[in-house]
Amino acid sequence: MKITDNISMDLEAYLNDKKVLEIACGDSEFSLSASKYAKQILATDISLERFKRKNLKEIPQNIEFKEMDATDLILDNGTFDISICYNALGHLESVLNSVLMEMSRVTKENGYLLFIVSWKMDKRILLDLKEMINEYAHLKINGYMGKNRYKVLIIKNIKV
Protein backbone atom coordinates (compact mmCIF):
# COMPACT_ATOMS: atom_id res chain seq x y z
CA MET A 1 0.00 0.00 0.00
CA LYS A 2 1.29 3.45 -0.94
CA ILE A 3 1.79 6.10 1.74
CA THR A 4 -0.87 8.27 0.07
CA ASP A 5 -3.35 5.40 0.43
CA ASN A 6 -2.56 5.17 4.15
CA ILE A 7 -2.89 8.93 4.61
CA SER A 8 -6.18 9.06 2.71
CA MET A 9 -7.56 6.23 4.82
CA ASP A 10 -6.49 8.03 8.02
CA LEU A 11 -8.15 11.24 6.78
CA GLU A 12 -11.32 9.56 5.55
CA ALA A 13 -13.49 11.52 8.01
CA TYR A 14 -12.24 14.78 6.45
CA LEU A 15 -12.41 13.58 2.85
CA ASN A 16 -15.62 11.53 2.83
CA ASP A 17 -18.11 12.94 0.30
CA LYS A 18 -16.33 16.33 0.27
CA LYS A 19 -15.37 18.75 -2.48
CA VAL A 20 -11.56 18.88 -2.27
CA LEU A 21 -8.87 21.15 -3.69
CA GLU A 22 -5.27 19.97 -3.86
CA ILE A 23 -2.72 22.68 -4.59
CA ALA A 24 0.77 21.97 -5.95
CA CYS A 25 -0.34 18.41 -6.74
CA GLY A 26 2.84 17.36 -8.58
CA ASP A 27 2.18 13.87 -9.92
CA SER A 28 -1.23 13.85 -8.16
CA GLU A 29 -0.48 10.73 -6.14
CA PHE A 30 -2.42 12.11 -3.17
CA SER A 31 -5.48 13.13 -5.21
CA LEU A 32 -5.55 9.73 -6.88
CA SER A 33 -5.60 8.03 -3.45
CA ALA A 34 -8.10 10.50 -1.96
CA SER A 35 -10.49 9.99 -4.88
CA LYS A 36 -11.68 6.79 -3.19
CA TYR A 37 -13.32 8.95 -0.49
CA ALA A 38 -13.89 12.46 -1.85
CA LYS A 39 -16.98 13.45 -3.79
CA GLN A 40 -14.98 15.69 -6.14
CA ILE A 41 -11.31 16.73 -6.38
CA LEU A 42 -9.68 19.57 -8.25
CA ALA A 43 -5.93 18.87 -8.46
CA THR A 44 -3.91 21.96 -9.39
CA ASP A 45 -0.27 22.71 -10.06
CA ILE A 46 1.71 25.47 -11.75
CA SER A 47 2.52 22.80 -14.35
CA LEU A 48 0.89 19.41 -14.86
CA GLU A 49 3.97 17.94 -16.58
CA ARG A 50 4.78 15.57 -13.70
CA PHE A 51 1.22 14.27 -13.74
CA LYS A 52 1.22 13.85 -17.53
CA ARG A 53 4.44 11.80 -17.34
CA LYS A 54 2.58 9.21 -15.23
CA ASN A 55 0.72 8.36 -18.44
CA LEU A 56 -2.22 6.84 -16.56
CA LYS A 57 -4.53 4.61 -18.54
CA GLU A 58 -7.50 5.40 -16.31
CA ILE A 59 -8.28 8.48 -14.22
CA PRO A 60 -11.04 8.46 -11.60
CA GLN A 61 -14.16 10.29 -12.78
CA ASN A 62 -14.24 12.53 -9.69
CA ILE A 63 -10.85 14.21 -10.33
CA GLU A 64 -10.27 17.24 -12.53
CA PHE A 65 -6.77 18.58 -13.26
CA LYS A 66 -5.94 22.24 -13.92
CA GLU A 67 -2.76 24.24 -14.23
CA MET A 68 -3.01 27.02 -11.67
CA ASP A 69 -0.71 29.14 -9.51
CA ALA A 70 -1.33 28.43 -5.80
CA THR A 71 -0.74 32.12 -5.00
CA ASP A 72 -3.44 33.24 -7.44
CA LEU A 73 -6.16 30.59 -7.65
CA ILE A 74 -8.71 31.34 -10.34
CA LEU A 75 -11.56 29.96 -8.26
CA ASP A 76 -14.58 31.42 -6.49
CA ASN A 77 -14.53 32.14 -2.76
CA GLY A 78 -15.77 29.34 -0.52
CA THR A 79 -15.86 26.70 -3.26
CA PHE A 80 -14.27 23.77 -1.41
CA ASP A 81 -14.98 21.89 1.81
CA ILE A 82 -11.29 21.15 2.25
CA SER A 83 -8.04 22.40 0.68
CA ILE A 84 -4.93 20.23 0.81
CA CYS A 85 -1.22 20.71 0.29
CA TYR A 86 0.68 17.41 0.16
CA ASN A 87 4.51 17.37 0.21
CA ALA A 88 4.85 20.76 -1.44
CA LEU A 89 5.84 23.07 1.41
CA GLY A 90 9.49 23.07 0.35
CA HIS A 91 8.45 24.36 -3.08
CA LEU A 92 6.09 26.95 -1.61
CA GLU A 93 8.08 28.17 1.40
CA SER A 94 8.88 31.60 -0.09
CA VAL A 95 5.20 32.25 -0.93
CA LEU A 96 3.58 30.42 1.98
CA ASN A 97 1.61 33.42 3.28
CA SER A 98 0.03 33.99 -0.14
CA VAL A 99 -0.72 30.29 -0.55
CA LEU A 100 -2.30 30.12 2.89
CA MET A 101 -4.52 33.13 2.14
CA GLU A 102 -5.62 31.69 -1.20
CA MET A 103 -6.38 28.28 0.31
CA SER A 104 -8.40 29.99 3.02
CA ARG A 105 -10.26 32.15 0.50
CA VAL A 106 -11.44 29.22 -1.64
CA THR A 107 -12.32 27.03 1.37
CA LYS A 108 -15.80 27.28 2.85
CA GLU A 109 -16.35 28.80 6.25
CA ASN A 110 -15.77 26.05 8.85
CA GLY A 111 -13.98 24.01 6.20
CA TYR A 112 -10.44 22.71 6.61
CA LEU A 113 -6.96 23.34 5.28
CA LEU A 114 -4.71 20.30 5.54
CA PHE A 115 -0.95 20.39 5.19
CA ILE A 116 0.43 16.86 4.85
CA VAL A 117 4.15 16.12 4.84
CA SER A 118 6.33 13.06 4.68
CA TRP A 119 9.57 14.66 3.49
CA LYS A 120 12.11 15.82 6.07
CA MET A 121 12.44 19.36 4.66
CA ASP A 122 8.64 19.75 4.62
CA LYS A 123 8.36 18.58 8.24
CA ARG A 124 10.57 21.49 9.33
CA ILE A 125 8.47 23.99 7.36
CA LEU A 126 5.29 22.46 8.80
CA LEU A 127 6.48 23.39 12.29
CA ASP A 128 7.08 26.98 11.10
CA LEU A 129 3.60 27.03 9.57
CA LYS A 130 2.10 25.78 12.82
CA GLU A 131 3.58 28.84 14.58
CA MET A 132 2.52 31.18 11.77
CA ILE A 133 -1.18 30.23 12.04
CA ASN A 134 -1.47 32.16 15.32
CA GLU A 135 -1.11 35.39 13.28
CA TYR A 136 -4.41 34.74 11.47
CA ALA A 137 -7.62 35.37 13.42
CA HIS A 138 -9.73 33.43 10.91
CA LEU A 139 -7.61 30.26 11.06
CA LYS A 140 -7.41 27.93 14.04
CA ILE A 141 -5.34 24.78 14.46
CA ASN A 142 -7.85 21.98 14.79
CA GLY A 143 -5.40 19.11 15.10
CA TYR A 144 -1.97 17.73 14.45
CA MET A 145 -1.56 14.09 13.49
CA GLY A 146 1.85 12.60 13.84
CA LYS A 147 2.50 9.21 12.34
CA ASN A 148 5.91 7.66 11.87
CA ARG A 149 6.03 8.32 8.12
CA TYR A 150 4.01 11.55 7.89
CA LYS A 151 2.56 14.55 9.74
CA VAL A 152 -0.71 16.41 9.15
CA LEU A 153 -1.54 19.93 10.31
CA ILE A 154 -5.31 20.42 10.33
CA ILE A 155 -6.49 24.03 10.25
CA LYS A 156 -10.11 25.14 10.55
CA ASN A 157 -11.19 28.05 8.35
CA ILE A 158 -13.29 29.98 10.90
CA LYS A 159 -14.22 32.89 8.66
CA VAL A 160 -13.74 33.38 4.93
Automatic annotation (TrEMBL):
It holds the Pfam family Methyltransf_11. Keywords: Methyltransferase, Transferase. The keyword Transmembrane helix does not apply. Residues 21-115 form the Methyltransferase type domain. Transmembrane segments: none annotated. It comes from the Bacteria. GO terms for molecular function: S-adenosylmethionine-dependent methyltransferase activity. InterPro entries: Methyltransf_11, SAM-dependent_MTases_sf. The keyword Manganese does not apply. GO terms for biological process: methylation. Gene3D superfamilies: Vaccinia Virus protein VP39. This is Class I SAM-dependent methyltransferase.
